[in-house]
Amino acid sequence: ALLFLSELQDFIEKRHAEMPEGSYTTSLFKDGLNRMAQKVGEEALETVIEATSGGDKLTYEASDLLYHLIVLLTAKGLRIEDVVSELQQRHDPNWDKKRREAKAAGKMK
Fold it and tell me: What is the rounded distance in angstroms from the CA atom of residue 92 to the CA atom of residue 82?
């Protein structure tokens, strides 16, 4: 799955570099960061609605969410591998130890 998402991002990066006319991806880059972030939010909401309503389009909406997230990451100079690295760090039991200890001590909400 990661290999496919990485290849998808390579394709999106190519679109960003070439900016071919008529490409939806090009239109997102031209519309700017706020529009890209808005699309991530829209697709996240549609994914939640499908998940909770019993609809049959959950994988469709989740695919849209992942696509738009990768476009946003690309615009910010990040890769899907950066997200995977963050998730791997969070798998370490000591990853969030200081924050959890401070929260338990009442030093943060």
Answer: 16
Residue 104 to residue 29: CA distance in whole angstroms: 43
Buried b (16+ CB within 10 A) or exposed e, 92-104: eeeeeeeeeeeee
C-alpha 42/C-alpha 78 separation (Å) is 21
Confidence class for position 109, pLDDT limits 50, 70, 90: low
* CB of 64 closer than 8 Å to CB of 46: yes
- % helix, strand, coil for the chain, step of 5: 75, 0, 25
Separation between Cα atoms, residue 96 and residue 90, nearest integer Å:
7
CA–CA separation, 88 vs 95, rounded Å? 10
38 pLDDT higher than 90: yes
Dihedral pair phi/psi, residue 102, rounded to 5° = -65, -40
pTM of the model: 0.86
Find the radius of gyration of the CA atoms of the chain. Answer: 17
